[in-house]
Amino acid sequence: MKRIKIADIWKDQRISGPVLVKGWIRTLRNSKHFSFIELNDGSCLTNIQIIADNTLLNYTDVESLTTGSALAVSGTLRNSPGQGQSVEIHADTITIINKTPDSYPLQKKRHSDEFLRSIAHLRPRSNKYGAMFRIRSHVSMFIHNYFQNKGFFYIHTPVITGSDCEGAGEMFRVSNIKPGQMITQNGKPDFSSDFFGKETNLTVSGQLSAEMFALSLGDVYTFGPTFRAENSNTSRHAAEFWMVEPEMAFCDLTDTMTIAEEFIKYVVKSYLETCQEDFSLFSRFVDTELPHVMNTILSSDFERISYLEAVNILINSGKSFEFKVEFNSDLQSEHERFLSEEYFKKPVFIYNYPKNIKPFYMRMNDDDQTVAAMDLLVPNIGELIGGSQREERLDYLIKRMKDMGLKQEDYWWYIDSRKYGSVPHSGFGLGFERLLMLLTGVTNIRDVIPFPRTPGHIEF
Question: Domain 123-168+204-447, CATH 3.30.930.10 — does that match?
């Protein structure tokens, strides 16, 4: 008999008769002549109840089973007289695949997120994290579906790179030279004997590579892991995270904000239509305001204001911020959340940032003081998307690189793209984990990624 997933039983009420299910025990309750087993196979949030009576040949072994044990159950699917489920399985045979010892750490009680992070290899078996990682899988597909349906091409950009997209320098070095054996010249590392013959790092962004393909294929996107060596233990930062980065040829900043808004609404709508059961767990037990936040995103036209307007709103708000609001300084998370949560009460784009706080590749505006950059701020998160129109003019790009002290020889291929058939183009980057935080109400990035990598933490 072919195994059936528990999710399919709940989806298709026409299923009846003999079935085979396999999964893990969530709870087991013994009575005088029966055992009631709640079984879950990870395919959905809702368990299936197994009725095991004492006529089973191995009933003595069954009634001694523990939470977490793995079973294969063959039986008959019948209407359930009990409350809370429409059907149940009356077992004909139960095969014990693995009996879990009493030391199994996931018992039938609420565990703290901190404890569950310490057993990240087991936490997907809990209701909350099973739901989280099913949502993560579904949302990944919604992202691909959006861009594929729009005619974008999916590009795999390098994880190992010799350039620093952001110019921040907070990158993880990649080397095959043993510690202590690095040759130095004039007190500086000499990378000529290293594997690639030059300093090499893990990427912070696939953008620059994606630009090359946008200038060839038109509209492209990359969706993959990126890395930051920031020594930060905040709830919004991780050393390894995933980025969604579309890049569009013949596209300006206004077009990019329109695409970003449409993209977010598409993902939210698909999420609410597809993940209703798992969404309900988070809206009941994590953030009761989550349905309102989702409905606001779907029903609102996202606000668009300039950086100058945003700073003036913050200065004149009368609100006391921990970090002072100043012109020509980047906005802090508290400023971003005030604008989206309290002032506009909906998502808001901020555009035209001062050039001195943005990377070299962003297009210079006519005022020679600001660049065509934008951030999308959303309630509960702050910045969700950062993007810009790229500088397509070779002379402007060269001047910007010189002003920022970047070596042209390190970006010779990027400069080439401005020599040969350069066109206006634009794109943005979305932090996938921050999107998941928005969708679930979870407030710590460590709880939306399977195995979080943070300073001092590289378990699993």
Answer: yes
